[in-house]
Amino acid sequence: MSRVAYVNGRYLPHGEAMVHIEDRGFQFADAVYEVWAVLDGRLTDAEGHLARLERSLSELRIGWPRSRAALLTVVRETVRRNRIRDGLAYLQVTRGVARRDHPFPSPAPQPTVVVTAKALDLGAMEAKADKGVTVISQPDQRWGRCDIKTVSLLPNVLAKQAAREAGAYEAWLIDQDGLVTEGASTNAWIVDANGALRTRDTGANILRGITRATLIELAREIQIRVDERPFSLEEAKTAREAFLTAASAFVTPITAIDGVLVGDGRPGPVTRRLRALYLDHARRNAW
Ligand code: PLP
Q: Which atom of ligand 1 sits closest to the CA of residue 182?
């Protein structure tokens, strides 16, 4: 089936969906985005992603292009038109089109809105999670506002490429103190010797992952302690378990970091339980 994309009010064949060459998203990465997991044709953590989009737009002083409800309707309609059962929905909002000049254009142009959706093979994702994935470490070379979900992702792209070339799934980014910030496109977690979860606090320079936030709540509901505190690469290598979270990966166990096995090198019981818990919650609350 041919894919459909939404661009500024129109649903178009994917190959014909275009934006202007002077769009500020293209020229300056002056744009924000969101990604929802789609399960059974419905959006997971729908409100959380929408709330983060609102914050990203407001931090960059880009106006809401449509009402929240209208925007969500477009995302859902794009999922429907692409007949996605399980997959990802992507929304990008740029500051719009203007003659190329660094300062914000005045008057503000109409923001550009693009929505796409793609199918994922949930069975293959499950198989990957059953086996676990590996990560490598890379220096965190990003800017100081990683809490804003901008499309300015070049350091993330380079780190992810390094991971792929090393045969790993993800790169964990390491700050100047040797502490893990997060993955190139995922949040980073460990299970410590006491069985408590550790993930870096969001006061630091990381993305406030929606999967992360939901999982913290779910873990606490079943009396698993969560410490929002940084951990070092060394602590991660000697942790009982390690895992990552993202809309694109849910909760995925990590079996090795820089070639060093985590625990016995197999997905641990806490991570497996959390993945099941998250997926169950996500499915029941999708809409
Ligand atoms: N960290 C980074 C840098 C990301 O790009 C992402 C997702 O794209 C995440 C964390 C996970 O966030 P979420 O759980 O909202 O998908």
A: 1
Q: CB neighbours (10 Å) of residue 74? A: 19
pLDDT score at 66: 86
Q: What is the pLDDT of residue 204?
A: 81
Residue 223 burial (10 A CB sphere; 0-12, 13-18, 19+):
exposed
The residue type at 235: E
Q: How far is the CA of 34 from the centre of ligand 1 (A)?
A: 9
Say whether pLDDT at 203 is over 90: no
Catalytic site residue from 118, 128, 131, 149: 149
Ligand 1 pocket residue status of 35, Cβ below 6 Å: yes
Q: Distance between CA 136 and CA 119 in Å, rounded?
A: 27
Q: How many Å lie between the centroid of ligand 1 and the Cα of residue 99? A: 32
CA distance 104 to 101: 8
Residue 165 has pLDDT above 90, yes or no: yes
237 assigned to active site: no
Q: Where in the chain is the domain with CATH 3.20.10.10?
A: 125-285
CATH no., domain 125-285 = 3.20.10.10
Q: List, in order, residues 6 or more apart from 21 with CB less than 8 Å away.
A: none
- For domain 4-120, give its CATH number from 2.60.40.730, 3.30.470.10, 3.20.20.70, 3.20.20.10: 3.30.470.10
Do 136 and 171 touch, CB atoms closer than 8 A?
A: yes
Q: What is the mean pLDDT of the chain?
A: 97
Is the C-beta atom of 252 inside 6 A of ligand 1? no
